[in-house]
Amino acid sequence: MMKELVVQAALANFTRVRDFIDEQLEGHGCPMKHQLQIAVAVEELFVNIANYAYPKENGDASVSIDFEESPKAVRIVFKDHGIPYNPLEKADPDVTLPAHKRKIGGLGIFMVKKVMDELSYEYKDGQNIMTIRKYL
Amino acid sequence: MLNITKKAEGSKLTVFLEGRIDTTTAPSLDDELNASLDGVEELVMDLEKLDYISSAGLRVLLSAQKTMNKQGKMIVKNASEEVMEIFEVTGFSDILTIE
Question: Nearest C-alpha of chain A: how many angstroms from B24?
Answer without folding.
Answer: 8
